[in-house]
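Colleagues,

Please find the record for the two-part complex below.
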Amino acid sequence: MTYLKNIGAYFLMTAEMFRKPTKWSVMKQLILKDIDDLIIGSLGIVSFIAFFVGGVVTIQTALNIDSPLIPKYLVGFATRQSVILEFAPTFISIIMAGKVGSFITSSIGTMRVTEQIDALEVMGINSLNYLVFPKFIALLLYPFVISIAMFLGILGGMAACIYGGYSTLADYVTGIQTEFETFHIIYAFIKTFVFAIILATIPSYYGYYMKGGALEVGKASTTSFVWTSVVIILLNYLLTDMMLG
Amino acid sequence: MIEVKNLHKSFGNAHILKGITTTFEKGKTNLIIGQSGSGKTVFLKCLLGLFDYEQGSIAYDGKIFSKLSEDEKRNIRAEIGMVFQGSALFDSMTIAENVMFPLKMFTKQSKSEMEDRVDFVLKRVNLDDAHNKMPSEASGGMQKRVAIARAIVNKPKYLFCDEPNSGLDPRTSIVIDNLIQEITEEYQITTVINSHDMNSVMEIGEKIVFLKLGLKEWEGSKHTIFKTDNTSVTDFVYSSNLFKKVRRMYLEDNV
């Protein structure tokens, strides 16, 4: 029953977010601030993780190919497929659920605890539109982060491959160009777009409707991370089955 | 003026407000007092429109809030200033930005007009050099004064304060009380204060509503509260020996 109630409240919150918009001059500043906090502020950690995990994927693939019948360019091919199809859109989104999701839940939750949301409501401001909508719009730029993760993941794989001596640059480049399907990119970005909506709304829901004090802000951040990750994994399965299955 | 008629509010089976009827007058500091759990905060949140209620009505200058359209409600809310117990300043904004916030949201003033108004109200609350500080850098008393400045910046018709003196030393409490009373008289605002502080009751209580277990047990002023024989009020207000003595002296002087 509680789950159903939460799901209902989540959809009502999402609908309310679009009602009674905040003044555009104010909203513009909020969106720019959230782009800075959520998108630009995540580029460093995403780049770091993408580069090194791309390298690890390459090393693992190379070490598991010991048959002389398997062509060497397969290392590049496998890295590209892993990074574009799953690692960048899904794995990075789980990391973002921890970084961006916790930030959203704790910042909105703290505003709830310190009555800042009540202050907005008393002034006649739609607090959901004021707080959640700019995050929603900012995270529409999330595919940009993922495209950087894709590029750096493949680049990290290339660096590991060459400097580790697992394959030649020519083989790796041949691998990443082999049987390239544009639809895989479309599939990855559709997933990314859906995950962006999840990353903006589920943590906001847990922050906005939290009750209690500082301890509950921490608990809400943890719960938000768990549910954001669960929903991302479930939707990943459903979207993959629908689009590639 | 705010008129409240037969206000009922429940949470599940808990009946919190049991038919409160009272009036808060313009240009006066109206205090709501009562023990913890008497329903003061729920009453204040109903007045602010943060809680819906099951029965009764609240009218702002004759306009019954629940019967208004969304636009009309928004217009009334834009005329409300609120000072929260914990100040509720926006931590991501400087003090000047906090005070400017209602102007940015609800007016079409130019930046320089807004800055002039912010300078004026910050000066009015004796904070003329705190513009660029963050709320976290301000003391409790300063934060309360910023909250008052933010509440009055858009020239509200109604000012609500939830325990404005909580956590403040006695001297700062008096400063805040006097400031609220001066502003109320100066701008002819209808001010409603939710308070536990008996000093405030004695100093600025031009109208006092005493709540007990969700009922309006008594109402009067800082003068009549000395003379009342309602034991619920006297037990609450004169619970300390100091206030018992003050009352005795007042009654002796006014025989």
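The beta strands of chain B are 2-11, 14-24, 29-34, 55-60, 63-64, 80-83, 158-162, 190-194, 207-212, 215-220.

Comments are welcome before we finalize the supplementary table.
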